[in-house]
Amino acid sequence: MSRSMSSVPRRGRDRRAEVLMPAPGHAGFNRYGRSGGPAPRAAVVGGGIAGLATATALAERGVRVTLHESRPVLGGRLAGWRTELADGTTVTMSRGFHAFFRQYYNLRGLLRRADPALSALRPLPDYPLRHSNGLADSFAGVPRTPPWSVLGFVALSPSFGWRDLTAMSPGAALPLLDVRVPDVYARFDTVSAWDFLRAVNFPEAAHHLAFEVFSRSFFADPRELSAAELLLMFHIYFLGSSEGLLFDVPDEPFPQALWEPLARYLDRLGVRVLTDTAVTAVRPTAGAELRVETEGGSAEYDAVVLALDVAGLRRLVAASPRLGDAEWRAGVDAQRSAPPFLVSRLWLDRPVDAGRPGFLGTSGFDGLDNVSVLDRWEGEAARWARRTGGSVVELHGYAVGERADRRRVEGTLLDRLHALYPETAAARIVDARHEWRSDCPLFPVAGHATRPSVDTPHPALKLAGDLVRADLPVALMERAATTGFLAANSLLRRWGVRGHPLWTVPRKGRSPVLRGLAALAAGHRG
To answer: CB-hemisphere CA count at 13 Å for 397?
Structure first.
């Protein structure tokens, strides 16, 4: 079964976005296989974005896919689950707010399979940022196309002005305007994000812009984060793309808006979805196949894709001693998770003031990184708020110290909410949920060389996920979706089947003049 061109991800508004065409091949397998034999069987381990993208891409070409997910629901780190509040209401809890940027071409292409118009996503009007020193930035009125985006931001920003721009070190700053992938890793992976911005002489008042919008999106302290990843983020969201920094959010909780429709689509493609089924080991067989073992038994497959988080991948590879070679296994074992983060969701008995932004990025508020008023856009939260006269507020705190007193952190974030939105101090908390997690990948200084890629020493084994090296300008959820499609394309190419076209933001800086200046500066430094 093959899909029409309607399944191809769309470029968006950026005319310089790049398409990655797959290798040529036949259209796919029918139910009997390309030459009368059975179509290949593939197991996908992990039901998050990467696993769902892989399963979709393979099944659309007629591959017989089994998707294993250890938890009872799909969605991975964007999963949702039901919980009952103190007032008796059943609601959907999750790990919190996620921004669906317009640069996420391949993720949005995945979601279009079940929702062609992306009707489940709605735009937020702004991406406001507020620092405890009183300064505030906004992206609502900033042009989206570089270099006008930079000039417009400087003209409108109270925290980054023309004087700050002229005070920056030109030689150190030029790489921001000429990010090339994967060259950026060779040049800047051994430098921390913190040290890079210090060398640029980034104005102190604007550090929160760089760290809160970009660095802390990786749930990491900027002193630990690779500068290559920071430069990549600047390129994807601000300096290399004309899609802008505004984004969309689902209008219902993740399961209802995204994963349940996609699961129905996979069912129509014949994908066998096994939730509550943890894979315990993957073992090469005497032939070219791989045996996937679970607590309930085992089955052999022509290919396996591991789409797991850091801990899950390390654990499964450790339990599969014949998988891969020593170097590859050491690289997997070297991966680490970012520090813990907190999502606190509060159901309040009174509304947040209508003049407050529905989403607010924050800096300098004792670990509070953003505030979301969910009833502004999420249908389930809005219905609860209308019925009770209250509001649903979510607080995020990233990169929390491993030894921090978690109760104290929860209380501090609540106090900072009261300082930012004073009307909430008088509100009674009807109920609260605090989700502590530590399962996002860490991208440390000098970590790129050991990061595993989609291909592995075993030709029938692939990796996918946001921890996987893609050597493309993608990050976060888009890296998960893109590596999922890349893993599927790699297997399809092996079987002589045409894969799926993909889109990315440009893989180098947009201006030839600025690229030339950056190259000249790099030559002088060398």
So the answer is: 28
Query: Which residues of the chain have a pLDDT value below 70?
Result: 1-9, 11, 31-32, 34-36, 151, 154-156, 159-167, 203-217, 511, 513-526
Same domain, 200 and 218: yes
Phi-psi region of 338 (alpha: psi -120 to 50; beta: other; left: phi over 0): beta
How far is 386 from 226, CA to CA, in rounded Å?
45
Residues 237 and 297 in one domain: no
User: Residues 200, 138: one domain?
Assistant: yes
d(CA 423, CA 400): 27
pLDDT value of position 339? 92
Please give the Cα distance from 351 to 427 (Å, whole number): 8
Backbone torsions φ then ψ of 7, nearest 5 degrees: -85, -5
- Whether residue 173 is found in the same domain as residue 304: no
Among 417, 470, 466, 17, which Cα is nearest to 219's?
Answer: 466
Q: Are 282 and 292 in contact (CB under 8 A)?
A: yes
> What is the spatial distance between Cα 212 and Cα 65, in angstroms, rounded to a whole number?
39
The residues near 240 (Cβ < 8 Å, ≥ 6 apart) are: 146, 179, 234, 473, 505, 506, 508, 509, 510
Helix runs in 216-293, H state only = 227-234, 254, 260-269
Residue type, 258: L
Q: Is the peptide bond before 444 cis (omega within 30 degrees of 0)?
A: no
The span from the CA of 386 to the CA of 510, in Å, is 47
How much is the pLDDT for 7? Answer: 53
Which position has the token pair 């999502």?
343
Task: Assess whether 271 and 195 both reside in one domain.
Answer: no
Q: How far apart are CA 75 and CA 277, in angstroms?
A: 15
Regarding beta strands 297-301 and 290-294, do their DSSP bridges make them parallel or antiparallel, or are they unpaired? Answer: antiparallel
Number of domains in the chain: 2
Residue with tokens 């992938």: 181
Over residues 443-496, the pLDDT tens digits come to 999 999 999 999 999 999 999 999 999 999 999 999 999 999 999 999 999 999
Residue 498 domain boundaries: 18-76+254-335+448-504
Beta carbons of 182 and 471 less than 8 angstroms apart? yes
Q: How far apart are CA 120 and CA 164, in angstroms?
A: 41
Distance CA 209, CA 364 (A): 11
Q: CA 153, CA 281: separation in Å to the nearest integer?
A: 51
User: Is the CA virtual torsion 453, 484, 274, 493 positive or negative?
Assistant: negative
